[in-house]
Amino acid sequence: MMWKSRAILLAVLLVLGLQGSVSAADPVAPVVQTEPAVTGTARVYSTLTADPGTWVPAAASYSYRWLRDGAPIPGATAPTYRLTGDDLTHQVEVRVVATGPDGGVSAPATSAPTASVGAAVFTVNARPTITGVRRWGRTLTAVTTGVWSPAPTTVVYRWFRDGLPIRGAVRATYRLTVADFGRKIAVRAGARRAFYTNRVVPSFATGPIGHRVPVRQRFTYSIATRGAITADLKEFAALTAQSYADPRGWRAAGYEFTRVARGGDFTLVLSSAAKVPSFGYPCSSTWSCRVGRFVIINQTRWLHASPAWNAAGLPLRSYRHMVLNHETGHWLGHGHLSCPGKGRLAPVMMQQSKGLAGCRFNPFPLASERWTSR
Q1: Which parts of the chain sit beneath pLDDT 70?
Q2: What residues make up the domain containing 304?
Q3: Is residue 240 within 8 Å of residue 165, measured between CB atoms?
Q4: Any idea what the CATH number is for the domain that residue 148 is in?
Q5: Is residue 144 located within the same domain as residue 74?
Q6: Which of 159, 225, 362, 370 lies 20 to 30 A from 336 at CA?
Q7: Residue-level pLDDT at 53
Q8: Is 236 helix (H, G, I), strand (E, B) or coil?
């Protein structure tokens, strides 16, 4: 019987040994060797990519969890993550778990955080353009379609004259004024959109701004003198040409005046005060006047202006503009006008030296005066 007991014991030991040899080994969890990392630009709407790092044994698969300032971002479990406005000014990192070839699961490994996420950046495709007629009194428009990608939700504007900002000119349109004559105009347009850095783009400058209207009528004049002249005749001729070409003067009505050596459509006379009455009614030695083809400038007024003008502290040059425009206006066919209302600019055809009736001195024709019967 003893041999039977020994046989049974050997059989049991054999079975136990075989079972031990066929049971599976415990799964091996990968261990991180190189920490995960995040690549990409930390800006809103940019895409970040997870580098899972290296593991031993090599991982068969990875799972990802994106974090914002250490807290899980809902739904962000892919190898890539597109930054949103919620990430602005925050730091983002990725947490990786590796699964080994035999199913072993690693402990989580977390990347270093990104820099603070910045605002998105517009792509600039072009410069703003300026449309419109380049004459003072007309309106220019800034066109910004297609300048930025994506399209901004708001565009702000600032207009410039010869590189200097124009006060109050902050709309998409700008109405040119006489101050813009001969100057170059440009605009800067700024794009704004939520979670984007504001982006300002300048236009190219226009060419010089022209007169309010093109030339509609051309007149010629010659210069003559009468009596003893002490004024500088060259200066008189130069300042006269400037007044006739001034964009605020009769040129704004489309009238061009060109000096000729003799004759012409009218004669501009610089006369001593004593000789002014020699031209006939209504001339006197006190004021300037116009008779027929003669536009007569009283030398005393040219040199010293009028008592009322001087009492107002106004420049002599402004008086010279006024007297030339007034007397030439008579030659153009304009009669005298009265004050249109207290505090308003006087018409240039008002006899401003004799009284203002509540108006303000003004050396240039008003818009309402820009016509001629000629």
Answers
A1: 1-24, 372-374
A2: 217-369
A3: no
A4: 2.60.40.2700
A5: no
A6: 225
A7: 97
A8: helix
